[in-house]
Amino acid sequence: MFEVQDVRLDPENRRAWRGVEEIVLSRKEFDLVHALISRAGRLVTRDELMREVWGTTFWTSSKTIDVHLGWVRRKLGDDSREPRLISTVRGKGLRFETGDATD
Q1: Exposure string over 18-49, b if 16+ CB within 10 A, otherwise e
Q2: Where does the OmpR/PhoB-type domain start and stop, copy by copy (predicted)?
Q3: CB count, 10 Å around CB of 7?
Q4: For residue 102, what pLDDT is reported?
Q5: Could you name the CATH architecture of 2-93?
Q6: pTM of the entire structure?
Q7: Separation of alpha carbons 39 and 33, rounded Å
Q8: Residue 30, pLDDT above cutoff 70
Q9: For 39-73, what is each residue's pLDDT tens digit?
Q10: Coil, strand or helix: which one is 31?
Q11: Of 41, 69, 40, 39, the residue nearest 54 (C-alpha)
Q12: Alpha carbon distance 75, 71 (integer Å)
């Protein structure tokens, strides 16, 4: 079980919660959140995400990650203009924020 900020993720049963509310994620959405939350506070490159979540070493579409990330942010209630959960580090990748002021 992973718990970061108020998001909990149960990889064994493939379930997710924000606070007390269970969030229904598609298979790829879940895999994306898992790849990020399992490394909370650290940068995960787009290449790593494509390999781990989509099982490919080539880009099927430059927007694949962005589209799925948009769906995940909406479901988790994370504002894409001022994200508090998942940050985009332009030109580098994504990071699931721990909420610590030192991050």
Answers
A1: beeeebebeebbbbbbbbbbeebeeebebeeb
A2: 1-98
A3: 21
A4: 43
A5: Orthogonal Bundle (1.10)
A6: 0.91
A7: 10
A8: yes
A9: 999 999 999 999 999 888 766 666 889 999 999 99
A10: helix
A11: 69
A12: 6
